[in-house]
Amino acid sequence: MFRELLKKIVDGCEGGLAGLLMGYDGIAVDSYLSEGAQSDIQSVGMEFSVILTQARNAVSLLGGGALREVAFKSEKMTVIVRLLNDEYFLALALEPDGNYGKGRYLLRSTAASILAELGA
Amino acid sequence: MFRELLKKIVDGCEGGLAGLLMGYDGIAVDSYLSEGAQSDIQSVGMEFSVILTQARNAVSLLGGGALREVAFKSEKMTVIVRLLNDEYFLALALEPDGNYGKGRYLLRSTAASILAELGA
Question: What per-residue string of b and e applies to B67-88 under the rule 16 or more CB within 10 Å gives b?
Answer without folding.
Answer: bbbbbbbbeebbbbbbbbeeeb
